[in-house]
């Protein structure tokens, strides 16, 4: 009996060591925006304590991280890659056996649209449609020209300035009496929403998710009555030289977890976690709002998430891994 027990212990120990060796050192791109740094810290903690990986964060950003993963095989994991910006290169990396799409980081995809505050729609449901917006355009007072109505666009120099401008013209908002206003910066755009909300004033403009702003302020995405024409969106709406823009809702932007093929092959159990790990936009909006309210960094918000959203993340891992992560969490 003692020999059997000793043999079992040796086998279990060998299995544990093999698992740790297989995972090895894992580098995770810590991107320079809040949702990405939160997810990177969540991945680091779960991989380190749940899968016995030697996980570390390295600075990252979309283009340099994607390029480095393709050309140099590092870092091992990009937890939140907005893949549209370099899709052709990433797809080539997959075809050449260098990369693998592990799963959807955001289950809803990145979300863009024209929005109005929910309190407006509660008073008049027609304001959830572009036809209702046009019919009530006098609500949206221009800050400088009483003859015009205001549509708050995307800041100059941002990619969304092109799409928002093309859709503004596609729906003939200029002919309806609106003027497209440049907020000057991301802070100017979010500040305009906050100011309107505090005063319960009308507001109409572009925004995106997941963001802290949409976590703090309940907004309604305006229905263009067009559905999504993804082909036209890609071929024209995204182009500065789009000569004949037509209405289309924004298609969801794919936001993926991308890993190197070498990591995928040596750590299949860790890969299975990354394939399961996905956040809904509403949940991420709420987390980002908490992060902003408490001026928390990615590590502190990770601890908040693992503590307060246990029913979410335990679905991504086995009961055994969840137990190990919860034990490590209790020791913080």
Give a verbal description of the structure:
With 332 residues, the protein is of the alpha/beta class. Helices cover 50% and strands 17% of the residues. It has 16 helices and ten strands. The protein has helices spanning 2-23, 34-50, 62-72, 87-95, 118-123, 130-135, 159-170, 186-199, 212-216, 230-237, 261-266, 268-276, 281-293, 298-308, 310-313, 319-330; strands at residues 25-31, 54-60, 77-82, 99-104, 111-117, 149-152, 178-181, 205-209, 219-221, 255-260. Strands 3-10-4 form a three-stranded antiparallel sheet, with helices on both faces. The protein has a three-stranded antiparallel sheet with strand order 8-5-9. Strands 1-2 form a two-stranded parallel sheet. α2 packs across α14 and α2 (34-50) crosses α16 (319-330). The longest helix is centred in the first third of the chain and has 22 residues, at 2-23. It starts with a helix and ends with a helix. The model is unreliable at 1-20 (pLDDT under 50).
What key attributes describe this structure?
332 residues, alpha/beta, globular, single chain, 50% helix, three-stranded antiparallel beta sheet
Which class do the helix and strand fractions yield? alpha/beta
H and E string: HEHEHEHEEHHEHEHEHEHEHHHHHH
Global mean pLDDT: 93
* Main β-sheet, spatial strand arrangement: 3-10-4
Main sheet properties: 3 strands, antiparallel
Q: Which outline best applies?
A: globular
Q: How widely separated are the two ends?
A: 39 Å
Percentage of β-strand residues:
15-25%
